[in-house]
Amino acid sequence: MSPEFAPPTDTSLPLWLIAKDQPLPEEAGNWAKASGFTGKAGEICLLPDGEGNLSGALFGLGTEAGSRRDRFVLARAAGGLPAGDWHLASDLPDWINADEAALGWLLAAYRFDRYKAGSGAKARLVAPAGVDAARLQAIAAGEFLTRDLINTPANDMGPAALEQAARDLAGEIGAAITVTTGEALLAQNFPLIHTVGRAAADAPRLIDLTLGDTGPTLVLVGKGVCFDTGGLNLKPGASMALMKKDMGGAATVLGLTKMLALTGATKNLRLRVLIPAVENSVAGNAFRPGDVLQSRKGLTVENNNTDAEGRLVLADALALAAESQPDLLVSFATLTGAARVALGPDIPPFYCDDDATASALQSAAMTVADPLWRMPFWNPYEPLIEPEIADLDNAPGGGMAGSITAALFLRRFAEGAGRYLHLDIYGWSPKAQPGRTKGGTGQGARALLAALPQVLS
């Protein structure tokens, strides 16, 4: 599925955007009044011509105050209008961002149809004046890739399949890719990735994709736990149901990589993408609670919960990334339930010690409707991740500040990078919303894409 705007033609139908209780256009005549159209958010009124054919439509924008409760306002029109090509016959009010509105229409077309026939929204929009249509289509294409990867169940999206998805993307965008698999992980000093994934039938691996040879260096690290049983600390069935999405960090960095390449951002950027791809399974050789594990960085880790495996595989990848001293190192991971308790499914927390980087990201997140919320690398909590018999603890007891302590753990392995940014994402929309179907969803990628020119300048 390729997201695209309709070409501008004389046959596209007009769509008037009407705020609540705004005067109706003359073209609507008395029909809209008789139909009870008031302009409330999401309301659609189809307009007939003198022969009973469709001549256009009105779409309700609601109020400025109400718009703050919803993203992608035009996505409702994409799903509610009849098939065909449409153009905006009226200007967007100044309280609606044109890029966000147009992107929402594109995103509304997404459907995951690998296993069940279906169709996306068939009402296409002519790109509104003033928006960069090619850029928005590239962003939507990256988001579609992320959603497809997350939505695919683990029987078809294990570590080998995730590797193939990365290889397919590398071929599409002209990137180089190398993969270290199975016992070779030990030979090349990635002990934590091997430890977590060794019990699975599908061997663990580290995917390493590079693109570009000039400009500042950016390394993206994505958690690629393709399914998480919890290991010997086995999850209950209800908690295991969505664990196909535990590779949401990997899916997000691959989607972001596609956005960067298709928008031309990699022409002046040295990009590296690292994905530790594993399945956390149960077998006779599974790692155990209480084991003390070796890491690439040399730090020892007391494993107090095999269900806190994501930070372990990320640790080796972050250590490798930091060795090259990149200008910016970013990790995306579906890491902690604590983040969901604090901020819910829609707002991922992010951690960054550099105020200028954090400010740029927060501002970009608001501008492009990809919300994020800054949380602290709270140094007084460092003792919580320092057990008695090893350098670090992957699952400190007490149940408090779980997202912060996980971020502090990761920061230990990112030392050496110019700046480190960590996003604790959910990667899933629990219910359908405008521009977002129920299921896998990208988080933070569009915000980082928008912030990078300022962050890496």
Automatic annotation (TrEMBL):
<dbReference type="GO" id="GO:0030145">
    <property type="term" value="F:manganese ion binding"/>
</dbReference>
<keyword id="KW-0378">Hydrolase</keyword>
<feature type="domain" description="Cytosol aminopeptidase">
    <location>
        <begin position="305"/>
        <end position="312"/>
    </location>
</feature>
<comment type="similarity">
    <text>Belongs to the peptidase M17 family.</text>
</comment>
<dbReference type="GO" id="GO:0070006">
    <property type="term" value="F:metalloaminopeptidase activity"/>
</dbReference>
<keyword id="KW-0031">Aminopeptidase</keyword>
<dbReference type="InterPro" id="IPR000819">
    <property type="entry name" value="Peptidase_M17_C"/>
</dbReference>
<dbReference type="Pfam" id="PF21337">
    <property type="entry name" value="Peptidase_M17_N_1"/>
</dbReference>
<dbReference type="InterPro" id="IPR048816">
    <property type="entry name" value="Peptidase_M17_N_1"/>
</dbReference>
<keyword id="KW-0464">Manganese</keyword>
<dbReference type="InterPro" id="IPR011356">
    <property type="entry name" value="Leucine_aapep/pepB"/>
</dbReference>
<dbReference type="Pfam" id="PF00883">
    <property type="entry name" value="Peptidase_M17"/>
</dbReference>
<dbReference type="GO" id="GO:0005737">
    <property type="term" value="C:cytoplasm"/>
</dbReference>
<protein>
    <submittedName>
        <fullName>Leucyl aminopeptidase</fullName>
    </submittedName>
</protein>
<dbReference type="GO" id="GO:0006508">
    <property type="term" value="P:proteolysis"/>
</dbReference>
<keyword id="KW-0645">Protease</keyword>
<dbReference type="InterPro" id="IPR043472">
    <property type="entry name" value="Macro_dom-like"/>
</dbReference>
